[in-house]
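Entry for the shared binder. Reason: the reviewer on the internal report wants the predicted structure included alongside the sequence.
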Amino acid sequence: MSKPFEIVFALYPKFDQLDFAGPYEVFFRIPDVRIRLATPDGGDLETESGLVYRGMEKLADIEGCDLLCVPGGGDQSAMTTPEVLGHIQRLAADARYVTSVCNGSLILARAGVLEGRRSACHWSFRHLLSDYGAIPDDARVVRDGRFFSGGGVTSGIDFALVVAAEVFGETTAQVQQLIIEYAPQPPFNAGRPETASPEVLKAFDAMFGDALRSAGGFVPQA
């Protein structure tokens, strides 16, 4: 029996659930794939939305993987200690693919593995990539060699399908798309600042602006 293709999701307290759940939904049904969930401390983990995942492995116990994926989240402090960034560097060095969703790319960038590489990120934090030597790219899914990245949150599904096509072939990727009925028809064209109306931008600022600005994020103005 051939060795399964091993995917490691590097998770952390308050990570964004959909950044992880979208790609997980694409990958977990593919034959001969093994998915491992690891955190800095192992054990139970609470997402940004308050859901709890149980029985996580410790990043330090993961010897290697074929694909490393880092999702985004509002509080990334647990992932930016020298010890944890060292584990990200170690796993990224030998992984066939190094990937991220949303502002998870900032964790990879802070670990030094995206220097000189193009990367996607959530639109509000994309500009911060250049602080760590990465090259911000506004595409929904970006590939630069063995590095794949998705933009904000929902792009994780698109990203995972692109990666699945690369690793397992387009037919397998399209089968996964079919089983999850991924045929998006959003009711509004407000998914990016460029297309959101002034009214939506004002409401966005009132709801999220202060938190984003305090984290160094960009807040669009109406």
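Summary line for the report: The beta strands are 5-10, 33-39, 43-46, 52-58, 67-70, 97-101, 118-119, 135-136, 141-144, 147-150.
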